[in-house]
Amino acid sequence: NAAAEAFNATLKRETLQGSACWSSAREARLSVFAWITRYNTRRKHSSLGYLSPIDYEQQLDKVLIAA
Predict the structure, then answer these.
(1) Residue 1 pairs with which residues in a beta bridge?
(2) DSSP letter string over the chain?
(3) What is the tens place of the pLDDT at every residue in 4-55?
(4) DSSP letter for each residue of 36-48
(5) Which of 3, 10, 48, 66 could form a disulfide with 56 if both were Cys (CB 3.0 to 4.6 A apart)?
(6) Rounded Cα gap, residues 39 and 67, in angstroms
(7) Radius of gyration, alpha carbons of the chain
């Protein structure tokens, strides 16, 4: 639950707060989608050793294959 709350708070702070009104629901969804894509692929997370989630998973896959 805490992780979900932290994710939602970050989404609000980085995407929704201070934004101009979107002209349509589609535009709002695309904005959130772009943020989630960045969050999951490029953003570095301290809990993952400052790797992006994608890099962390790829590193884990390499370790599992080698084992």
Answers:
(1) none
(2) -HHHHHHHHHHIIIIITTPPPPSSHHHHHHHHHHHHHHHHHT--BGGGTSB-HHHHHHHHHHHHHH-
(3) 898 888 888 888 777 668 889 998 889 889 888 887 777 777 888 888 888 8
(4) HHHHHHT--BGGG
(5) 48
(6) 30
(7) 15
